[in-house]
Design goal:
CATH architecture: 3-Layer(aba) Sandwich
Number of strands: 11
Largest sheet: 9 strands, mixed
Distance between the termini: 47 Å
Number of helices: 10
Helix content: 40-55%
Number of domains: 1
Radius of gyration: 19 Å
CATH class: Alpha Beta
Order of helices and strands: HEEEHEHEHEHEHEEHEHEHH
Strand content: 15-25%
CATH superfamily: NAD(P)-binding Rossmann-like Domain
């Protein structure tokens, strides 16, 4: 059991099990204007916070004295993460259960962004991938992928920038992928959504030059999360050196954010791959990508 103070630090969602939720549910906790150290309260909102890179962001930000709003569909995982963060770091943690593939879910997070004057950081991490020949994939699932990876990220970035720009400070981290640098046969929709994130984030960052609001484009490579399993990609043939931990990705991202870097590709090997992808003619990249994806598809 949590101590009474820890219990008060968690704002719990009261929705039923949200595996297929199309809306959101949360109870806000009235927070003090200052943190325990006497400094101004800092809040970060992390989407896709129930696992992987999102959970690693939540853990690191709590350690860095941020209060948190954790957004995802899976209430049980969010509750467990919130309890762990409160115990370990004594931060205020709000659980916001929302399906960002739905308009209602996105609107709920937009409203939370607009209502919070202490908001310093939004991490747009929610997303998923599919793999296989495009014509064989479920059409509705491909459309859902675009709604989550592109439209939700666009809307939440707009909400964050609109809230932060009048205050003259704040940051948004948009989590993309190395896959966004070139067309990726058998990963076509996912790579295309990340290509949008790459172009969009860099363009809006330039628009914000001099405003005090910063955007970061985070492009990890293979990261040890459940993403590959969900996407149906076999990874047992990949060498160990090709992988990074979610914690290492987050550490590099936040250090780069402090330096004001826009494009962040974690890991030396990934930096080389990213440079090759950007320099390689599309025709070569398409053929190479198709050959690699054929090998890594689950069941191939």
């Amino acid at each position: 059991m949590l101590a009474p103070e820890a219990e008060r630090n968690i704002a719990r969602a009261r929705a039923p099990e949200p595996q297929t939720m199309s809306s959101s549910d949360s109870i806000s906790h009235a927070a003090s204007a200052e943190d325990a150290s006497g400094g101004p309260r800092r809040l970060a909102i992390v989407t896709g916070a129930s696992a992987g890179i999102g959970a690693a962001f939540a853990e690191r930000l709590a350690r860095d004295a941020y209060d948190l709003v954790l957004v995802a569909r899976r209430r049980d995982r969010l509750d467990a993460l919130a309890e762990r963060l409160v115990r370990a770091h004594e931060r205020r943690v709000e659980v916001l259960v929302a399906d960002l593939g739905s308009d209602d879910g996105v609107r709920a997070v937009e409203a939370r962004i607009a209502a919070e004057p202490s908001l310093e950081l939004v991490v747009n991490n929610a997303g998923f991938g599919t793999s296989g020949a495009f014509v064989d994939l479920d059409r509705d699932a491909e459309a859902d992928e675009v709604r989550l990876n592109v439209l939700a990220l666009l809307r939440l970035t707009h909400a964050a920038v609109a809230a932060m720009q009048p205050r003259g400070h704040g940051s948004v981290i948009n989590v993309s992928s190395l896959a966004g640098f070139q067309p990726a046969p058998f990963n076509a929709t996912y790579a295309a959504t990340k290509a949008f994130v790459n172009s969009f984030t860099q363009a809006v960052s330039e628009e914000l030059r001099g405003t005090g609001v910063r955007l970061q484009l985070l492009c990890p490579g293979f990261t040890r999360t459940e993403f590959q399993e969900v996407a149906g990609v076999r990874t047992d043939d990949l060498p160990e050196f090709a992988w990074m931990s979610a914690e290492a990705v987050v550490e590099i991202s936040l250090e780069a954010l402090r330096r004001g870097e826009l494009l962040v590709i974690p890991g030396g090997g990934n930096k080389v791959i990213g440079a090759l992808f950007r320099a390689m003619p599309n025709s070569v990249a398409r053929r190479l990508g198709a050959a690699l994806l054929r090998r890594t598809l689950a069941g191939s």
